[in-house]
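BUG-368 | component: ligand-complex export | severity: low

The export step for 3-isopropylmalic acid jobs runs without errors, but we want the raw record kept on the ticket for reference. Input record follows.
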Amino acid sequence: MKEINICVLAGDGIGKEVTDWGVKALETAGKYHNMTFNFHHELLGHAAIQATGKPLPEATLERCKASDAVLLGAIGDPHYDLNPHLKVRPEQGLLAIRKGLGLYANIRPILLFDELLDASSLKKEIIQGTDILFFRELTGGIYFGQPRGRKEDGTIAFDTKIYAKYEVERIARMAFEAAQTRKKILHSVDKANVLESSRLWREVVQELSSEYPDVEVIHLFVDNAAMQLIKNPKQFDVVLTGNMFGDILTDEASQIAGSLGMLASASIGNEVGIFEPIHGSAPDIAGQNLANPLATILSTALMCNRGLNAPAAGKMIVEAVDKVLKEGYRTKDIMDKSTDPSKILGTREMGQQVLDTIHAIANEKIMA
Ligand code: IPM
Ligand code: MG
């Protein structure tokens, strides 16, 4: 039996509710794939500030570094939005852990489950069949650039968007390699008509393209990309972009998949990766058994595929989610007019439904 160490960072808001089910999904699928897990729970974000004064305590970073993978819930609390003068914020913990673990690539698959076509606010015929893989640069750009701060009497503020060639190159390579295994089209998104950092971005991507002659590269300005994404999402396959553009475009793209509550993500770099839903901490529904645990459960599938080298377990988890949706079960965020009211589930019931289905799939396989 392989002993696998997972660091669980529930974080804030609905984070604990959803990671609880991510942990159970891993344990359940793991049972059928010779994997046993040790889960270590550590603090990050608002929860960490309350307990230690720091958004990323050293113990958390150390534990992550010593783990095989990290499962993260969500970070953020309205307290800080109401008090913008506060210097210490939960999000700093998230940015620091990304940087601390060297996670320069944030991979966000926009995968549409056919059963959820009606949950999207977009037209069925536009979105059906969409399958996009985003590569968002995660440890550079305007999120980290120096200098940043305030001038004069506080009435002038500035941030710096900065990219080094190697930062563009390493994530671009990942995107090119992914494109080679998919439709061999790569859309690179920038704002090269205005920003110097984007001109460098474009140059580097263009230069690299000669090493991947089988991949067609299309450069797009971010404003156009935002429009094209809604107009005709199926034209995209692999999309490569910087930190902030990627943040914005993936939230937009989530609506193609029906709900932010469905999307998983992997942040990877050199060693241990973080696997997390792309949704936030949703303080308005925290603790009410309303959160959709599926994005976190799907994140554990990504973890199996990309972090633990256990694709069969990952496949089983995705299959279970698909089956649960096919059977008509929904959390509130993904229901529509046709949903059978008796199949509208809370967080716990949806989580349990997935576990039961994992068992059912495993038993079918054993019988077959
Ligand atoms: C995300 C989030 C974070 C980001 C926030 C919480 C700092 O929106 O992971 O997309 O902007 O990267
Ligand atoms: Mg975001």
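Assignee comment: Attached the raw record above. The CA atoms of residues 176 and 334 lie 33 Å apart.
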